[in-house]
Amino acid sequence: MPRFNKDILFLVIEELQRDIKSLFSCLLVSRNWCETAMPILWKDPWCYDINYSKKNSLFIIIAIYLSDNVKEFKDFLTRQGLSSSPKSLLFDYLSFCRSFNVPVLNTLVSICPSELHNQFLLQEIYGFMIKKCPGFKCTSIELFKHQPFYFLENKARLGSLCELKCDTSVDSLHFNELANVCNFIQRLIIINKCLKVNDGIVNLIEVQKNLKYFEWKDDFNDFEDNFENDPYEKIFLALAKNADTLNFLILSLHYIESQNLEQIVLQDLLTKLYKLKTLIITGDVFMQFSEEQIRMLVYQELEIFNMDLISLPEVSCIIENSGGHLKEIPLNYDYYESNYDNIEEEESLIFIRQIYEKCILIENLSLIILSSEQYFTEFERLLISCKNLKSLTLRMVNNDDEEAGEDLLNTLIRSAPTNLNEIRFLNNFKFSLESLENFLEGWKGRHVISIYTSNPVHKENSYMNLVNRYKNIGVIKNFICDL
What we know:
Elements: H1 2-14, H2 20-27, H3 31-41, H4 56-66, H5 71-79, E1 99-101, H6 102-110, H7 119-132, E2 138-140, H8 152-155, E3 163-167, H9 172-181, E4 187-192, H10 199-206, E5 213-218, H11 233-240, E6 248-252, H12 261-272, E7 278-282, H13 291-295, E8 304-307, H14 312-320, E9 328-329, H15 345-358, E10 364-369, H16 373-385, E11 391-396, H17 402-415, E12 422-426, H18 433-442, E13 449-453, H19 461-472, E14 476-481
Parallel strand pairs: 1-2, 2-3, 3-4, 4-5, 5-6, 6-7, 7-8, 9-10, 10-11, 11-12, 12-13, 13-14
Helix pairs in contact: 1-3, 2-3, 4-5, 9-10, 10-11, 11-12, 14-15, 15-16, 16-17, 17-18, 18-19
């Protein structure tokens, strides 16, 4: 029975693995809780939202492990009045570690004495961490300056790597070395620092046999006027070879032009990735897609879909060719930013019907609200049909119409699904103080609600006093007015 209880405790604490405060609290409950929580805390000690430059204790633990082989670390610990024997540690912390993060390690090293700042010692740390971490699964090699991958004894350790985060400024040779031993990466995140093609990354993508998640984020300030090759072409062609395994595609692209080859290659890539569950693309991509090309995008397993600069008919087309599994369509609708008044009502009606007929599992949805009676009728049908809906983002075309705002709030009170717990009102959405009070009164007994608005009027004392009253009785969780 005690063993059974510890197994249950492990499963419970494992649910808190991204919650650093709760994990530290678990360490203080009892010895049993501490022994259960410590391996979870150290599984990926670099992932938490903390200031590592102030975590001297992490560096000291690494220094203790290395002190037997590196005199500089032993001398450092002696000056600090600390034991230099790994046996003095309560746990074999690094034996729990399954990840390696160069940026965080660089930050930790930056707080150590200046005499420990040299390439040899950094290589000792990198090499030791790779050898020490059993079942090595994930790593981040952003800002990578040294060469542990050239150490023969480390290459075998990298064979189990299943997650990698890196940037294109790393020398192509490093990625070619990785490609020789890492063929089963499942999750690959690349930060693109320049328009120059990194052929090593292309090679690494091509040799993967089970790539499921791919994320690419452009992060450069200046565009290069003269470059030899299209910046994305080789990447897109390499990704196409992973069509049979790729489930998640997230692209944040700064440089897309309709006349360039990469636009054509991207269109071809998107038609091949038939197993996608998540498709998120930031950048001017769909503006140049024809209706025929969009109809070729068939994703029967799609659950999350989000693209910039996309029209309602185009989204409707994607929904038509999906398999009924869509859970998130959190679209920004930047396509309409300057011409909301030109939105055709029929397009909006078709879109909202597509949602309640083909996306009944939807949880996160963005809508452009028209103030017509027919639209509100269809909107209410959506609320009744989509019982899993948790989050709504609403943009009103005629945002000066308080009566339409009141009608919307009344519709939500009557028909909103019980799971709905977040509503975002954008474009200076207007509703009177009385309408808001009626809405909050009608919301009693439901899920506590979070409301976000962009109308500065809602910051006035009369609104905030009302909000605070309903916060105190447990109707409102958050009320945020963000201009």
